[in-house]
Amino acid sequence: MIKNLIIREEKPEDYYNTELMAMRSFWNKYYPGASEHYLIRIVRESEDYIPEISRVAELDGKIVGAVFYTRAWIVDGDTRHEVVTFGPLAVEPTLEGNDIGGALMRETIRLTKEAGFAGIALMGEPYYYPRFGFERGAKYGITDPEGNTFDALMILPLNDDFSNIKGKLYESPDFEKVEDEQALEEISKQFPAYRKVKVQEGFMQIFEKHLGVVESVDGDICQVRYWEFLIPARILSDLSQKPIAGSDVIFEWNHKGESRIIKVFKNLLE
Length: 270
Fold this sequence. Notes:
Pfam families: Acetyltransf_1
Shape: globular
Distance between the termini: 39 Å
Structural class: alpha+beta
Domain N-acetyltransferase: 5-159
GO molecular function: acyltransferase activity, transferring groups other than amino-acyl groups
CATH architecture of the largest domain: 3-Layer(aba) Sandwich
InterPro entries: Acyl_CoA_acyltransferase, GNAT_dom
Keywords: Transferase
CATH topology of the largest domain: Aminopeptidase
CATH class of the largest domain: Alpha Beta
Radius of gyration: 20 Å
């Protein structure tokens, strides 16, 4: 973990910078653009928001990560159990790979347990959250509101009370407000106008890989623009299309070794 990283409660003067960081964190990850900056505003205004266990990460006076918790419910017939969920968990993209998200998760899991909540439920990335103890909801008899179970629905029991909990998971109805595209568009005008990229039709889910633009090519090494960084990345020998300056690429960013370009693509929005 980065030295001098501070995990603390969010203050009103942090709001814009937290939202901007979250916007950058999720930009072009699931679809062109992002909505997580708007979601954070929705969560803050929700009656189901739990600021006591939500946290931001600060480094050298800048907000570099955040996680927001809200109440959720597991319903089994007439029985309703209160648990918590979280989202978004966001990290400044130029600082990925430094365990900022991990630091936020470990601290907020501790706070949630101390607060007496029975457990944490979420819809999230199944490759990431098991490292913190999350398991598939199916193991505990927990489904989504339609009765479905899948890898992304995960549970972390925090005390013995959870052994008696099963049923359908319901999150705060306020989350549905994020579908308001007009409100998202208006709020997004308050932030920098970043380039939107569409890699493919439908859901993109660009995680553990990154989108960049090639600025120069020298043999089999490209300089790839990723936010404010230029990252040297090797061109894989079996690429069907070789990148040139200006190419949009998907690349693997190895923070401790060689980064690699794994695909050249055309931005479907241009």
